[in-house]
Amino acid sequence: MNATAASARPTSFWVIAVAALVWNLLGLAMFYLQVNMSPEQLAAMPAEQRQVYEGTPGWLNIAFGIAVITGSLGAIGLLLKKKWAVAMFLISLIAVVVQMVGAYVATPAWAVYGAMGLIMPVIVLVIALLLWRYSGKAAARGWLN
Hints:
Blueprint: H1 3-7, H2 11-35, H3 39-44, H4 47-54, H5 58-79, H6 84-106, H7 109-113, H8 119-140
């Protein structure tokens, strides 16, 4: 297989890379809003949600930040066709696992949200896993250098 054939990327590669960047930029926005919540915004939350927010240890916010920053870097790496995107998505996946498990272990999230509260964390986890796996396959196919 020659270098040209190995580096040919389908349109879906670019669609996934752009979607990954948009997804992670939305995550960055959510992270910013969460760590910069004003007292007025906190007071406007329902009591149960406020209890979870106030019960969230700082290390969970750090995991959240690492997840979205490295996820964004991974998406940028895909767009730049760089192999380091795989490592960024792996770090993001690990941080997502820490954040999601930690949220249900270290906060009253389970008592407040119950099983229905797991829907979004599971979606986030699956997307992080798929992005890591996709970037690995892209590297194996020679789409990343």
